[in-house]
């Protein structure tokens, strides 16, 4: 039997950080952001659809998606973000589901699905446990501004384009508090894995 852990949280809450901790413990990761990057490679129909809606200016000189430019177009315009989601989410969903099926068929004991839009895109039924990484808003803003070199207003636009963290926490089976030192977070990951393994035994 496979336990699929759905790992989510707000932007810059620490999903990748937590997901690396699971990977270090030997757990395979399905990374939705990585899949989202793969499905828009040059010469894909997804990229062609994006260009037909947003125009050729979202491409770099070498025909790659200019992620920074597209991000600036969609994160302050709900309608444009919805248009982008309508193009990419069905394709991302297909890849995610086929990877989960493969792990379940192989009876891999524990797998993590790291998906920022897990709750917005309703992946609840695809997983066995919902884990939300949580930090107070002030820490989320500060980490996002530092990591992506954004102003407070730009950081807030991105934070507000998702379900609120409080809303995500309310839907969680387990909450990982990532507001302290990394070691504190790592201990919570190790504890959670112990519990999951005990339940599966
Ligand atoms: C708009 C894009 C080009 C911006 O690229 P950029 O390199 O700046 O961001 P990146 O892809 O690394 O995502 C960073 C974070 O932004 C947030 N985010 C990404 N896409 C979305 C979205 N559609 N809605 C809300 N938040 C989002 C997530 O928290 C994500 O972890 C890119 O995010 C994208 O293609 N998004 C659509 C695909 C998607 O939904 N990805 C999320 C995985 S399900
Ligand atoms: N406990 C921590 N203490 C200090 N900094 C941290 C901690 N956890 C994460 N960070 C930093 O905060 C930033 C956001 O973390 P991370 O990239 O893991 O978030 P994320 O939720 O995966 O983001 P996204 O939604 O954009 O994919 C990174 O720069 C990371 O190094």
Automatic annotation (TrEMBL):
Cross-referenced InterPro entries: Depp_CoAkinase, P-loop_NTPase
What Gene3D superfamilies does this protein map onto? Answer: P-loop containing nucleotide triphosphate hydrolases
Main location class? cytoplasm
What protein family does this chain belong to? Answer: Belongs to the CoaE family.
Pathway, per record: Cofactor biosynthesis; coenzyme A biosynthesis; CoA from (R)-pantothenate: step 5/5
Q: Which GO terms describe its cellular component?
A: cytoplasm
Q: Where does ATP bind?
A: 12-17
Query: What is catalyzed by this enzyme?
Result: 3'-dephospho-CoA + ATP = ADP + CoA + H(+)
The record's EC number reads: 2.7.1.24
Q: Can you name one GO molecular function term for this protein?
A: dephospho-CoA kinase activity
Report the subcellular localization: Cytoplasm
Enumerate the PROSITE patterns for this protein: DPCK
Q: Which SUPFAM superfamilies match?
A: P-loop containing nucleoside triphosphate hydrolases
Name of the protein in question: Dephospho-CoA kinase
Could you say which enzyme class this protein belongs to? transferase
What function is annotated for this protein?
A: Catalyzes the phosphorylation of the 3'-hydroxyl group of dephosphocoenzyme A to form coenzyme A.
Q: Which UniProt keywords apply?
A: ATP-binding, Coenzyme A biosynthesis, Cytoplasm, Kinase, Nucleotide-binding, Transferase
Which Gene Ontology biological process is one annotated for this entry?
A: coenzyme A biosynthetic process
Q: Name one Pfam family in it.
A: CoaE
């Amino acid at each position: 039997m496979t336990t699929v852990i759905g790992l989510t949280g707000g932007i810059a809450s620490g999903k990748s950080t937590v997901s690396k901790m699971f990977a270090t413990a030997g757990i395979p990761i399905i990374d939705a952001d990585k899949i989202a990057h793969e499905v828009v490679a040059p010469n894909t129909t997804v990229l062609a659809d994006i260009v037909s809606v947003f125009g050729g200016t979202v491409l770099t000189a070498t025909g790659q998606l200019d992620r920074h430019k597209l991000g600036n177009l969609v994160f302050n315009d709900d309608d444009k973000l919805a248009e982008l989601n309508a193009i990419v989410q069905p394709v991302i969903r297909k890849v995610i589901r086929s990877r989960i099926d493969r792990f379940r068929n192989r009876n891999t004991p524990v797998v993590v699905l790291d998906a920022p839009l897990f709750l917005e895109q309703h992946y609840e039924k695809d997983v066995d446990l919902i884990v939300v990484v949580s930090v107070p808003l002030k820490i989320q803003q500060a980490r996002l501004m530092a990591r992506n070199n954004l102003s407070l207003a730009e950081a807030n636009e991105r934070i507000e384009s998702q379900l609120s963290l409080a809303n995500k926490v309310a839907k969680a089976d387990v909450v990982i508090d990532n507001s302290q030192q990394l070691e504190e977070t790592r201990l919570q990951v190790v504890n959670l894995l112990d519990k999951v393994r005990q339940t599966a035994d």
